[in-house]
Write a structure and sequence with these properties.
The complex is a heterodimer of chains A (300) and B (216). Chain A is α+β, with helices and mostly antiparallel strands and 300 residues long. Chain A has helices spanning 2-9, 28-34, 38-41, 46-49, 56-68, 76-79, 125-139, 149-166, 180-187, 189-205, 230-245, 274-290, and strands at 13-18, 23-26, 72-74, 100-108, 114-123, 170-177, 212-217, 220-226, 249-251, 254-256, 260-266, 296-299. In chain B, strands 1, 2, 3, 4, 5, 6, 7 and 8 form an 8-stranded antiparallel sheet that branches. The longest helix of chain B is centred in the middle third of the chain and has 27 residues, at 115-141. Chain B has a single domain (2-213), classed as 3-Layer(aba) Sandwich (Chemotaxis protein chec), CATH 3.40.1550.10. Chain B is globular, with a radius of gyration of 18 Å. Classes of the chains: A alpha+beta (300), B alpha+beta (216). The A-B interface holds A 55-57, 60, 63-64, 67-73, 75, 77-78, 103, 105, 108, 112 and B 30, 33, 36-38, 102-103, 105-106, 109-110, 113, 117-118, 121, 124-125, 128-129, 132-133, 136-137, 140, 145, 147-148, 150-151.
Chain lengths: 300, 216
């Protein structure tokens, strides 16, 4: 009697399945989050209601519970969830479904034989959301929301050697806002921040899903273009340049026009390391600045 | 010969022999069940029993795995009347080999997962199954039922990084049951150490004697 009340009061989902994986118990928590009453569940095959559960890992786990009384664990990291329950969003997280940490184990009858198994379901959406946030903080720039330099260094190394190994095309555009210091001096740092956000938002909207836009330093950005050769990358750079040049930036009812300079480099035989790859793009950028700014220069 | 005195203190010759016998039976049954659950045949060697002081344990484990460049460890506590720690050591590269073995048919759904998460989760799953099979059968023969904590995993570490020397309780003795295992598919092998600590040694001795009485 008391145990039954705890069974329904506990902030944890509990399901009991028999050896044929038919539902024997479905506690209140499961009712609340699934929207299905226990009497509708009991006696039904769990796969009938949740067909996605019928994976080899799940079946393997059930088998190991019944054959040697094992305990099995389904971590949120790998599985996200066992039971697909809608979630109200926590901390503005993007999870559509409740993130769950689940485990399964044996239940024995009076003779000590394993007659059924239990599954418990714990809602870990909030923790998972925190983890996602931390991950984001680690690789994203706080001001502009695009990737940061730490991310560039890790990702560039991986991609660089992959493209080298398979002799694929891979290019980079280094971007610098022209006379950015004047924006800060004449209009204040808040306006400078506004310009940084505008530039990153516009360029972000002009890249493909597979490209990466990174805030490299103060007013310098870097764009990685996988599967793109020098010519293609130059066309992209030129498009970025025009996009920024012909856009009015309205800050406090004042129109501020800016331009950018761009340097383009690509992977080729003479580029042996990720550092050389960046250096080449830097040299091209320097050349663009020297040749009067608001210009893209490609270096092969 | 301090160690032999110590060993005599913990288990008698008879008890040691019967434990050896029980483990042979248990691990034979485990191997059969494992084949059914993970579709691979696991070879478990004849178990070896050794008593020691807990602080000697890291060195003992190291002496077995010293040929491994890097190691993977899955550790789990088991808790019943029979209780202690199960430490499963895989050779390096085991995680990736096991991923291939277990998840070929559903690899699609894991495409977006970084390989390191997949690797540690796979080691955890296989470790959990292997430990559960061995400990569970052993406990069953000794008429006990055990529970387990979720497995902890260390992936591709140097031995010195993986085993914390300060962690062990210096006054405690342990009976260490060691077996080596290998999977017939994939290049996976390693050692399983079951470390039963003080609290369950008395119970273990009693159970062994009860087990012996059945045959006398």
């Amino acid at each position: 009697m008391i145990l039954n009340q705890i069974f329904d009061a506990i902030n944890l989902g509990i399901v009991v399945l028999d050896r044929d994986l038919l539902v024997q118990k479905w506690n209140r928590w499961m009712e609340i989050h699934s929207g299905i009453d226990a009497d509708k569940m009991i006696g039904k095959s769990i796969f009938e209601i949740y067909p996605d559960l019928e994976s080899s890992k799940f079946k393997r786990s059930c088998k190991s519970v019944f054959s040697f009384g094992n305990f099995c664990f389904f971590s949120q990291k790998l599985h996200s969830y066992l039971f697909q329950f809608k979630t109200s969003s926590y901390l503005g997280s993007d999870f559509e479904y409740m993130q769950q940490s689940c485990a399964m184990g044996p239940l024995r009858n009076e003779d000590g034989e394993i007659s059924s198994l239990y599954i418990y379901v714990q809602d870990v959406t909030e923790n998972a959301a925190y983890q996602e946030k931390l991950k984001d903080l680690n690789i994203k720039d706080g001001l502009t929301g695009i990737y940061n330099r730490r991310f560039l260094e890790a990702r560039l190394k991986e991609e660089f050697f992959r493209y080298k190994r398979y002799s694929g095309k891979f290019s980079m555009v280094m971007i610098d806002i022209d006379n950015f210091k004047e924006v800060n001096d004449n209009h204040g740092h808040q306006c400078g921040d506004f310009i940084l956000k505008m530039v990153s938002a516009r360029i972000s909207s002009a890249i493909r899903n597979i490209d990466y836009l990174i805030r490299y330093g103060g007013d310098e950005f870097c764009c990685l273009l996988p599967e793109t050769g020098l010519e293609g990358a130059y066309t992209v750079a030129e498009r970025f340049r025009a996009l920024i040049e012909f856009q009015d930036n309205n800050y406090d009812d004042e129109i501020i026009n800016i331009t950018i300079s761009l340097g383009v480099s690509t992977i080729c035989d003479s580029v042996d390391t990720p550092e050389m790859f960046i250096q080449k793009a830097d040299e091209a950028l320097y050349k663009a600045k020297k040749e009067g700014r608001n210009k893209a220069v490609a270096m092969d | 010969m301090e160690s032999s005195v110590l060993e005599d203190n913990i288990l008698t010759q008879d008890e040691r022999e019967i434990l050896q016998e029980i483990m042979n039976i248990a691990f034979g049954k485990s191997a059969a069940d494992l084949a059914d659950v993970i579709d691979a045949h696991v070879e478990l060697s004849i178990p070896f029993i050794k008593s020691m002081q807990i602080p000697d344990l890291p060195e003992y484990i190291r002496s077995h795995v010293k040929d491994y460049k890097l190691i993977n460890i899955v550790e789990q506590k088991f808790w019943g009347k029979f209780r202690g720690d199960a430490i499963l050591v895989f050779s390096s590269g085991a995680g990736k080999a096991l991923i291939k073995m277990l998840q070929s048919e559903e690899s699609k759904s894991f495409d977006s997962e970084p390989i390191d998460i997949l690797e540690s989760e796979t080691l955890m799953e296989v470790g959990n199954i292997l430990i559960g099979a061995c400990v569970g059968k052993l406990a069953e023969l000794l008429k006990d039922i055990v529970s387990y904590t979720p497995p902890m995993v260390l992936v591709e570490k140097e031995y010195s990084e993986a085993i914390a020397h300060g962690y062990y309780d210096h006054d405690k003795k342990a009976i260490v049951l060691k077996t080596d295992f290998s999977f017939d598919t994939g290049n996976v092998s390693g050692f399983l150490f079951l470390v039963t600590t003080n609290e369950s040694i008395m119970w273990l001795k009693e159970s062994l004697n009860t087990f012996m009485d059945q045959y006398e």
